[in-house]
Amino acid sequence: MRFLPPSAWSPRTRIAAVCAVPVLALLGTAAFAPLPFSIARPGSTVNVLGDHQGKPVISVSGVESRRTSGQLRMSSIIATGPRAEVGLADVAGDWFRTDRAVMPRDSVFPPGKSDKETEERNVAEMTKSQESATRAALDYLHRSPKDVKVTLRLADIGGPSAGLMFALGIVDKIDGDGRGGDLTGGRTIGGTGTIEPDGSVGPVGGVPLKVQAEGRDGAGVFLVPKKQCAEAEAELPKAMRLVPVTDLRDAVESLKALSSGGRVPSC
User: Fold this and answer.
1) CA–CA separation, 241 vs 220, rounded Å?
2) CA distance from start to end of the chain
3) Which residues neighbour 51 within 8 Å (Cβ) at sequence distance 6 or greater?
4) Which of 33, 68, 195, 215 has the most CB atoms at less than 10 Å from its CB?
5) Which intervals of the chain are annotated as region Disordered (predicted)?
6) For 49-66, what is each residue's pLDDT tens digit?
């Protein structure tokens, strides 16, 4: 191939070459400059019927607490922090991975907040979620909070998305399936969803990653807010059964039906 020296280039070629220089410089800078994204991946799961860091996740007093079998596992995701530098190479490398999610940083971390303020917000959301889960579960069981005290310990995982699983754990600890058996039927049940004091279940973020985390840790069933069925199905492990829920009552009824061989809703 023959290359002409710049002196032999046409005026149009010279103009194109001059214009290309800043474009290439911009692309080179973008390749190394931090971008406003956060990269998330499947996090840990915790059995709310068991222990965490040497202490029971759920403790009940004022009523006899049942010994349970099976597991009710809440799930989490791990995201790069608000001060982590995420570059073009990171985004390009993780964009098409099914076990990663590239999200706007502001959708994960509130803008203008320090790391401490963000952590405090997450802890506050978890505390509120635990309070709502307790109220929803005791109301479902027709128990008075004046007579039954519930203590929830899971302080190192923030956010409100474990609410549904906390509520189900309280129901299982106190009443099981209502017939002397376990609400889980001895299975490992995963799930996610916020919960309100009236028992309604709301959507959460990172559902595809949470499904993967639960499958990795042995869950054969995953409870998901009904409106997020499509998100969960996108990365559903082959052996996992997906069960949509709208409130605590239908979540309990679905688990009872699963144990008894009854009709269980599907997405």
Assistant:
1) 6
2) 60
3) 57
4) 195
5) 106-131
6) 999 989 999 999 999 999
